[in-house]
Design a protein that fits this description.
Layout lengths: L1 E8 L3 E10 L2 E2 L7 E2 L2 E11 L4 E8 L7 E5 L11 E4 L4 E8 L2
Antiparallel strand pairs: 1-2, 2-5, 3-4, 5-6, 6-9, 7-8
Length: 101
């Protein structure tokens, strides 16, 4: 697993781009079944109107990668034959308005 981020902030305009990589993961006791490696990108871009008001656009999973986020036993016994694979979140885009008092 590796993470990295580049950020910019000039006092008014700010932004960041982050990458998150995870290698192939095995999920059986014999290591004969695996989940592919994946690379996810997140980004944000914002503007400070005043020292108390800023607007920000955010995106997670920027390239809408389909991936397995979690590998586990799902609460089942540890016999090794009931693995749970959970799908990762799709691209999400949202806006944040921040106002201070």
């Amino acid at each position: 697993m590796a993470r990295g981020e580049l950020a910019y902030d000039d006092g008014k305009l700010f932004g960041r781009v982050g990458l998150n990589w995870m290698s192939e993961r095995y999920f059986t006791y014999l290591n004969d079944e695996s989940v592919d490696a994946r690379l996810l990108a997140d980004a944000s871009l914002g503007y400070r109107f005043t020292d108390k008001i800023e607007l920000q656009l955010n995106a997670t999973n920027l390239f809408d990668k389909q991936y397995i986020a979690t590998v586990g036993s799902g609460g089942y016994g540890d016999s090794g034959d009931r693995q749970t694979l959970l799908v990762g979140a799709p691209r999400q885009v949202f806006v944040t308005l921040k106002a201070g008092f």
